Amino acid sequence: MKTEPAAPFTTRLLDRSRLSEKAFQIELDRPSGFQFLPGQSITIVKESVQRDYSLACAPDSARLTLCVRHVPHGLLSPFLAAAPLGTSFSFTGPHGYFLFRQSPRPAVFVATGAGVAPFFSMVSAGITGFTMLHGARTADELYYEKHLRAASARYVPCLSEGSVPGCFMGRVSDWAREHLSPQAYDFYLCGSREMIRDVTLLVDERFPGSLVLTEIFH
Amino acid sequence: MKTNVGSGDRGITSLLSGERVPKSHARVEACGEVDELASVLGACAAALSPAHAALQQEIQGVQSDLLHIGAWLATSPDSPTRQMLRTISPDRIREMEDAIDRLEGELAPLQSFVLPGGHTTAAWAHIARTVCRRAERRVQSLGTDAGEAAGESSGGILAYLNRLSTYLFALARYCNKLHGVPEATWKG
Question: Is residue A24 very low, low, confident or very high in pLDDT (cuts 50, 70, 90)?
């Protein structure tokens, strides 16, 4: 058990596209030798700043894709939003244990905002048949909706603003409380700290015997 | 890495493998002991002057090992997450034995029981040794309770903690020597 740091890789920004007013997607050159599993993240390092981003692509993808929430006064996202294509930077990884596992319990994926990235990676790797609770402020922030809807057994968009046909109006935890039948599940939670807290407490109350795997995104 | 906040307010926490368990669960207890050990070692390292940076670094290496051990203990044995975690290699245990030999080579042979204390760094190392022994007991009983055999299937943790306790005893004595503080011995 040596204390080796995670291997540093150098990459280049190849493409950038807008997902919504608040988020964008970037594609990076995949360094030779970099392997990851769906659900894992990388840490982008720029001078003294480090930020974790889940990979939003298949493990055999030629490019690495990240879903980035644009924080106007943030430490890294403004750089990623403005850097010219071709800009080089380094990252470490892969990190994390937010990995899908086969189980006799039904899987429930719960995402808010850019927290949908690891689920998109899992779906890109062929994982299907789960229940997806997809939370966002507005419908245009339901990133990767088409792919997630197609792969899931049940897809539930939950919006906190406005009224959109076919969408549940309210929090993902409200939907789970009202509609998810009481039994044990494997919950995969990725998104805001508030969502993770609310759903985890709900699991303790209503779904004992469940697994809860979490990844926090701000 | 971001930390979860609030989902343990009712006395239940998540293992790394996803199970929700009471905070008094044997696995959480074992993690807590290892965490306490790493913290006490931090106090020991912090009390060393920058002139002893190599020793500080060696202690930080142990703290890093303890984080890996904590992750292992926080994961149920049948979880696939276990397959992704680092175990303690035989090489790492040999490194620990070499470190013990190095420190003991600097010390006079023991003629009597040593009374824990002396320089602040030595006192912290003695506390760390006792916490290490407690952690070892918790891990051992966790293995028994969870049906995990000692040795290979516990990722070398028991062997590592056993060596670490010996290392910390040698470290405590070495810290006193390093700072010119005579060892207090048991007069019987």
Answer: very high
B185 token code pair = 């011995």
Q: ipTM greater than 0.90, yes or no?
A: no
- Identify the pLDDT of residue B9: 86
* Structural domains in chain B (count): 1
Instruction: Measure Cα distances from B167 to B21, B43, B66 in Å.
Output: 33, 16, 14
Q: Does the beta-carbon distance from A3 to B64 stay under 8 Å? A: yes
- pTM here is 0.89
Q: How many helices (H) and strands (E) does chain A have?
A: 5, 12
- Tell me if A3 and B86 make a contact (CB, 8 A cut-off): no
Collect all residues of chain B within an 8 Å Cβ-Cβ radius of residue A97: 16, 81, 84
Tracing tokens 């290392």 back to the chain, one arrives at: B167
Q: How far apart are CA A137 and CA A126, in angstroms?
A: 28
Number of domains in chain A: 2
Say if residue A117 is in the same domain as residue A204. yes
A42, A61, A95 - which closes a domain: A95
Q: Nearest 5 degrees, angle CA A96-CA B80-CA A200?
A: 65
DSSP H helical ranges for A108-144: 117-124
**Domain for residue A154, yes or no?**
yes
Q: Is the pLDDT of residue B89 over 70?
A: yes
- Name the residue among A97, A197, A218 with its Cβ closest to that of B2: A218
Q: Do A1 and B88 touch (CB under 8 A)?
A: yes
Residue B108 above 50 pLDDT? yes
Chain B: give the shortest CA distance to residue A78, in Å.
20
User: What is the longest distance spanned by two Cα atoms in chain B?
Assistant: 54
